[in-house]
Known about the structure:
Blueprint (H helix, E strand, L loop, with lengths): L4 E6 L18 H5 L14 E7 L14 E6 L8 E6 L3 E6 L4 E5 L16 H17 L2 H4 L3 H7 L8 E6 L7 E6 L3 E6 L4 E6 L14 E7 L8 E6 L3 E6 L4 E5 L23 E6 L20 E2 L6 E6 L3 E6 L4 E5 L3 H4 L6 E7 L5 E4 L4 E6 L14 E6 L11 E4 L3 E6 L2 E6 L26 E7 L5 E8 L3 E8 L1
Antiparallel strand pairs: 1-21, 1-22, 2-3, 2-29, 4-5, 5-6, 6-7, 8-9, 9-10, 10-11, 12-13, 13-14, 14-15, 16-20, 17-18, 18-19, 19-20, 22-23, 24-25, 25-26, 26-27, 28-29
Protein name: RCC1-like domain-containing protein
Keywords: Membrane, Repeat, Transmembrane, Transmembrane helix
InterPro entries: RCC1-like_dom, RCC1/BLIP-II, Reg_chr_condens, Ub_ligase/GEF_domain
Amino acid sequence: MLIMRGCVRSAKKLTCLRNGNLGFGFFLSRRWVSNSSGEEDRSSSGKRFAALWGNGDYGRLGLGSLESQWRPAFCSAFANESLTGISCGGAHTLFLTETGCVYATGLNDFGQLGISDDKSYTIFEAFTICAILFSLMLVFPVNYIQKLKTVEHRTSTVAWNKNAQEPLKVSRLPKEIIKVSAGYHHSSAITGDGELYMWGKNSNGQLGLGKKAAKVVTAPRKVECLTGVTIKMAALGCEHSIAVTDKGEALSWGGGGSGRLGHGHERSMLGFLMSTSEYTPRLIKKLEDVKLGVASLTGGLYFAPLNMQTQVKSIAAGMLHSACIDENGSVFIFGEKAVDKLGQQAKNATTPSMISQLPFSEEVACGGELYTWGSNENGCLGIGCTDVSHLPERVQGPFLKHPVFQVSCGWKHTAAISEGNVYAWGWGGSHGTFSEDGYSSGGQLGQGNDVDYIEPARINFGKNVKALQVSCGFNHTGAILEYT
């Protein structure tokens, strides 16, 4: 996930690899590739496992504690099974096993872990139930309170569910899952036959469950309005979601502020802001004939109007904007269009607009040559300085010789995979905040220090290990690694 910048991978050949997220090295790495005698252990060849590092608040790293990790740490909860996917959100993390099961860890203030088997409530309903229960406890004897056991149980897992310090299995997913995505406070999973399940915060309809749905959903619910539609991928931002169907249709829903849904929401002639939320998935008409792929986004800058429909193959959802790439390798972004990014007075792009200063691109935020632009605090663009970049600029260093396979953006840090190695750059220090009252200790670059890196820095995982996927959360990072 990302907030104020953009990342795109370009490719000179159609055969270039796709994009993604990133990883780093461990102090435990020798134990993973050697047996007790010090000889290389081939029995685990091909096994895929998770490593995480960065801020450990709320248990988001899944390591059984709240401690932050300045270098990658092996998630021992999956020692006996292989992983195929990881997605880092605001302060929670989702894991996907080889058998199609989903596990979650970290912050659960809006039920984003999906570990509750109980009914979902609106925040008002939850507080009302607890207030009634407390009042009855003051008035009635203990033997009567025993009769309220059911009510008490129902309130035990509402919006303030306990956080998890280690991965817990997500409940109510009736089928094998093939893809997961973690947003800021909500989560999603796609089944093998293309059904979409969502859970977590639903304040602006970002779960796509309809206008009457609860504001907090603590267990996965199928997006029923998509019955009969096969979903191939989903991208989750802060309070909005995007999905792609098997027919190449782009759908978006949730909070539409800044035009991030791409539906052309505008203020009225008198300056009043009409409701921009969409409570069920809605077709992005400008991309109606587009074939969509996958992605991970951050920010965007230089725009040109999109005057005709085109085939799209990749999508991404950021904090206040969204992006996609068409079959011709053109990048389109819609949503926040800040003045300091464009260097001129400009409105938000409420419908897809093209970035004209890019070569042929394969995916948003990934593969081939890597281009970044936007806010550059702490060097998160990786271009060797901290100056804002109003136009896409190629990230050099190790990526001049080897193509980028995957890239992912966090709050102020970025990570990418190239030749099986993970590189990270941007903000590496402390004193960052997840919320106004929160405290972040840093470590998300996995370099063992709190130094900012303005160029890609390789993360050392040791020998016989390669990175397959990387994901940046708000200020933590996770990767799927494989023994070779």
